[in-house]
Amino acid sequence: MTDRKTLLITGASAGIGAATARLAAKRGYDLALNYRSDTKGMQAVAVDCEAAGARTLILQADVADPDQIAAMYAQIDAEFGRLDALVNNAGIVDQAAKVTDLTHDRLRRMFDVNVIGAMLVAKEAVLRMQAQGDGGAIVNISSAAARLGSANQYVDYAASKAAVDTFTKGLSDEVAADNIRVCSLRPGLIDTEIHAKGGDPDRAARLAHNVPIQRTGSPEEVARAILFLLSDDASYVTGTTLDVTGGR
Q1: What are the structural domain ranges in the chain?
Q2: What are phi and psi of 116, to 5 degrees?
Q3: pLDDT 10s digits, 62-120
Q4: Which of 85, 168, 209, 246 could link 184 by a cystine bridge, Cβ 3.0 to 4.6 Å?
Q5: Contact (Cβ atoms closer than 8 angstroms) between residue 60 and residue 84
Q6: What pLDDT sits at residue 197?
Q7: Is 26 in contact with 48 (CB distance < 8 Å)?
Q8: What is 5-242's CATH topology?
Q9: 154 flagged as catalytic
């Protein structure tokens, strides 16, 4: 028997998700680690987490597919029997484009992953936390783009993250009486692979001069803020959004 809490992190194979997994393992969590395609990256993260004392479960699932979400949670139920916390991190960005160049297929994929997927993953977490009866914590990963708009680059991504912020507030109000806390965290210019996936690998470094603190952030800095929001140190914090943006 263990007193380690169980944490599900979606999109845990790289970047913010991977940094959060590694830190959570050191902070005493057992981990359900979701990824979509980066098997090698996910295995490396799991090895590090296990070396830090965590029990890990690797879960390959595309959060845009409700059936894969259901299968993922069935594995969590079988392996851990409970869920104490969720970091709703899985998300995508696309190539830079103006709104006049956006296609229906691109918008559907963006919102299926970043919004609908996040909502369905959170729904399943809440159902388990309510059934357990002792509360829980959810951190939805948004973006500073939600309030900056990302004109001429990723307006669709920004809009999807604004939806995540609104969802966070609504869900938090619904489940606060169940002692389930729900917060949103907005990273700013963080040095991760997401910029390369958007076709602009040097974007963070190029724009760092626009950040008041005059540098990009690290995934580890974001992870520390996430772990704070999950912790008992944030026991009176819910329904809010924390910017981790260097002042931008």
Answers
A1: 5-242
A2: -65, -45
A3: 999 999 999 999 999 999 999 999 999 999 999 999 999 999 999 999 999 999 999 99
A4: 168
A5: no
A6: 61
A7: no
A8: Rossmann fold (3.40.50)
A9: no
Q: What is the per-residue pLDDT across 157-209, written as a single tens digit (0 to 9) for each?
A: 999 999 999 999 999 999 999 999 999 999 999 998 765 666 667 777 788 88
Residue where the block lists tokens 């263990």: 2
- Going from the C-alpha of 82 to that of each of 73, 85, 182, the distances in angstroms are 10, 10, 18
Catalytic residue among 29, 154, 157, 236: 157
